[in-house]
Amino acid sequence: MAAPLATPMATPLSVVGTTALFFAGALVMRGAGCSINDLWDQNLDKHVTRTRHRPLARGAITPFKALAYTGAQLLTGLGILLQFPTSCLFYGIPSLVLVASYPLAKRVTYYPQFVLGLTFSWGAIMGFPALGVDLLSNSAALSAAALLYASNVSWTVLYDMIYAHMDIKDDAKAGIKSIALKHDADTKKVLSGLAVVQVGLLGAAGMVIGAGPAFYIGSCGGAALTLGWMIKRVNLKSVKDCWWWFVNGCWITGGAISLGLGVDYLLKYAKDDKTDSLEN
């Protein structure tokens, strides 16, 4: 989404390279987030069937070793962040506050998934400065980034609500709060509402940057179809089924969104390249 807004327009090679760095950064920082979560929850995890065999919960490693490992993950994440333009440091470092605070959210609110969404969606903002697009001086880019970020927050809450249903019985006994517990009787209605919000915000982000038909058909249409299919098919009473959709649903919907964005960008790039050739 950010690539066509760059001046000059980002090349396919730079987009692929930046995407690869983002993938590595996301992998490392997600791992760091899980480590921080396990440190906070080592006593709670003992009471949940799915998590009681985690290394800290079962005493396989000490908290000090886990903390050292987390530090190594964070340093690796910083090393990846330093590969981006310097301005990305100012956007990236504040996300650590959210990474550290998510485990606390489940102790005070039934909506920790919202905090998780704020954390996991940070890349939607980072992508713009990573390609040299200044959000503070480009109002269209800022609006698109904000809408894309909000869309991803809604998506994260949606798929993590399905994930939360795996632990709903144990969470109730352990006193762990989650959106699944709060809205157990109306989960599919909530999921449907979140899907509508996600697709609507995604479409609005595309409108701000002048996205083409490929984006609306591929990204927005693809997201609507895959999310609708998942919400209809998922059996919230089956741990196995919830796990399957949690793992695969993200790839299915994410693949549709990425494909639409990718095709839209390539069409714009080809048009821009052709215009440059004619002018020269």
Task: Considering the chains and any ligands shown, give keywords for the structure.
transmembrane, mainly alpha, 280 residues, 0% strand, Tetracycline Repressor, domain 2, 12 helices, 4-hydroxybenzoate polyprenyltransferase activity
Task: Give a structural overview.
- The chain has 280 residues and is an all-alpha fold.
- It has twelve helices and no strands.
- It has helices spanning 12-41, 63-81, 87-92, 95-108, 112-120, 123-130, 139-164, 168-174, 179-182, 187-209, 213-233, 239-279.
- Helix 1 packs parallel to helix 4 and helix 11 runs antiparallel to helix 12.
Précis, in short:
The chain has helices at residues 12-41, 63-81, 87-92, 95-108, 112-120, 123-130, 139-164, 168-174, 179-182, 187-209, 213-233, 239-279. By secondary structure, the chain is mainly alpha-helical.
Overall domain count: 1
Terminal residue distance:
27 Å
What is the global morphology?
globular
User: According to CATH, what is the topology?
Assistant: Tetracycline Repressor, domain 2
Low-pLDDT stretches: none
- Fraction in beta strands: under 5%
GO cellular component, one term: mitochondrial inner membrane
Transmembrane segments: 80-102, 114-133, 139-159, 190-209, 215-231, 243-267
Pfam family, one: UbiA
InterPro entries: Prenyltransferase, UbiA_prenyltransferase, UbiA_prenylTrfase_CS, UbiA_sf
Strand and helix layout:
Blueprint: H1 12-41, H2 63-81, H3 87-92, H4 95-108, H5 112-120, H6 123-130, H7 139-164, H8 168-174, H9 179-182, H10 187-209, H11 213-233, H12 239-279
Membrane topology: Multi-pass membrane protein
Cofactor: Mg(2+)
Family: Belongs to the UbiA prenyltransferase family.
